[in-house]
Every structure is written in structure tokens, then in C-alpha cells.
Amino acid sequence: MGKAARKKGPKKDRAPKVRDVFVGQPFEGLAAEPELIALREFIPSATVELSLVDSLAQAADRTVTLGTVLPMAAAAFVRSDGKAYVGTQVQTRSSDISRDLGRAIRWVLDAKPGDVLSVPDTTTPPAEGERLQDLLVADAELAPELHKDFSWWLPEDADSSGEVGASLERANEAIMPTERIGPGAYWVDAGEKAHLRWVRPEQENLLLQALARLSAAGEIGLGEGSRYAGSFRAHGLLVPVWDLDPEAHAREWEDGAKQLGERLDAALKSLDTEPLNAAERRARDGLIGRQLTLR
């Protein structure tokens, strides 16, 4: 038998190939989508308790807290006092971040105090019920608690020496002061400049049209000392960014952000009956060209 004939024989022992499809909007369908993106992308230190679906919450003997960065950039761990954490900002990832986080939640519910999941499981073929959408209450909102450091890594009476202590010190040094001033909206002190980074839930094209309408009307700012800088994309949503006067405290921008949000909601609603005029279309083209890279 020739080589060509032999190659055509059945491959009985080979496992079926699993197609790994990239998920561009991993948190779609969750009311907390903007907050999850912010936790994943740019909030330095924050925690929030997750609302697990009833079946999972009843079976578990602990709550799960979502954090930004965990000790040594772990995917999940259980503190010595039994408190369970899952991290959002991990370097290793699969094609579906929602699945990675879902698996970490499953792991941490059964883990023991002191256990650490260094990296998420990204190689096992996907199974049903592993994504965040399967494990979390879909309409539950998240209001993360922001911290000035990473002391929440340890129980209050824990010793902060050794490898964890060194990791804690390095992480604290890298924090940029950040405050939440509204749903999905975060003030960030980047040194020479301050910014508002606002993760918006709307479809990108509609949001750009609404922003263009405000821009053409001269209403896209948050008030004196603010300037629209551009936007970046993160996990399927658009994140507009404004430069802010760094001398002003974060709380001084709350009213401006609230009023901007009301104008933006009105502009979005107006698109149902009023298409963009020529000036607004030019403004939209200008906004599209102002794409930022988050650093």
C-alpha cells in the first residue's frame, strides 16, 4: 500500500479538534458589562462581591469577590481567613475572557484557604455553564469599591512580609489615583493630566452619532477645564475619554458628568427621529479619527 492510500485511513484514536472562537464582546448580556470592562482594563485596585445565580449561591458555602489585581497576578485565590477572590487583570487568557473568569469562579468555590490558581484554565475544551453569563445574575449591577492600595490582599492581622509582601509593595507603587464618579465612569489621575474614562453600554455607531451631535452643538465637554480627547475600544464597547484639569478634585466633576450623561441620553434618543445633519456628520468623522491607545 502506498503512502497516499495509508494517509486516507480513519483516525480513530485522535480526539476531535475543538475550535477556539474569539469572543469580541465577552460580557455581553450582563448589566454590569461596563463595570466589568473597567475592572479588567484600567481600575488599579478595586473589589466587588459578585451576585451568583441562586442555584450556585445555595450550593456554595462562601461568597466570591471580584478583584482587579491579585497577589503575583494570580487568577484566583482564597485568603487564610477563607475569603475567596477572582482576579480580572491576568496576563494569560483564552479567546473568551468570560469563560476564563467563569472557570476561576468554579475553582475558587471549592478551593481551600491558602490555595492559589496561578493562571486560568485556557486549554480544557469548553463546557456548558462555565461563562459569567451562566454564573451571575444577569441584571445585577456592580458598584466596585476602589482602594488606595492592595492591603485587601491580606486579612487585617496577617503578616505582610515575604514574597506576598514584596508583591504588595510593587503593586502599591504602580497605582494611579482613581475614583468612580458614576456608572462606568472613572476619574483617573495620570500625573500631568487627569482623565475621565467612561465605558458606555451603547452600540458603537449610535454612541459616535450621539457624541457627534453634542460636539457639533458645543456640548461635548464636562465644563471649564475639560476637553474631549478621543476614545478607545475595549471588549466590544467604546470608551470615550476626556482630559480634565488635574488641579480639580474628582468630586468636582460629578455634576458635569451627570449633566453630560443626560445630554448624551437625549442625543441618543433623538437619533430615532432626527438623522445627523451635515455639520454633525463632519463632527462624527472627526471623532472617528481620534482613537486612543490606553497605556
Task: Explain this structure.
- With 295 residues, the chain is of the alpha+beta class.
- The chain has helices spanning 3-7, 33-41, 54-59, 97-110, 132-135, 162-173, 204-216, 254-270, 278-288; strands spanning 46-49, 64-67, 76-78, 84-87, 116-117, 145-146, 178-182, 185-189, 194-198, 226-234, 237-244.
- The chain is 31% helix and 17% strand.
Quick gist of this model?
By secondary structure, the protein is of the alpha+beta class. It contains nine helices and eleven strands. The strands form two sheets. The chain has a six-stranded mixed β-sheet with strand order 5-3-4-2-1-6, covered by helices on one side.
Radius of gyration: 23 Å
State the oligomer: single chain
Which range best describes the helical content: under 10%, 10-25%, 25-40%, 40-55%, 55-70% or over 70%? Answer: 25-40%
Beta-strand percentage? Answer: 15-25%
Tally of separate helices: 9
Q: H/E series, N to C? A: HHEHEEEHEHEHEEEHEEHH
Strand order across the biggest sheet?
Answer: 5-3-4-2-1-6
Show unreliable segments. none
| Average pLDDT reading | 91
Measure the end-to-end span. 60 Å
Q: Strand pairing plus helix content: what structural class?
A: alpha+beta
How many beta-strand elements? 11
